[in-house]
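Annotated sample (chain length 77).
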Amino acid sequence: MHFKTIVLSAFAALAVANPLSPPVKCKPATYSCAANSQTGAPGWQICDTQGVWQYGGDCPPKTKCFFNEVNQSPYCI
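Output written by the structure step:
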């Protein structure tokens, strides 16, 4: 009985020390169209392994980003 109490106490301590991580904002390894936060130019972004969007790059001049729903990829056209 004493052993069971020690084990349960240890698990409780671990639960308090490691609260649940915040929910994922995006699905890792997915893409979307985005605007450059500094210039406003159209471009794309990618979701990193932590679930955070990272800006990938600008589209060439005189093009804009188009997201293809079929293959889930952004294209500059």
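Annotation: The CA atoms of residues 62 and 77 lie 8 Å apart.
Annotation: The chain has a mean pLDDT of 84.
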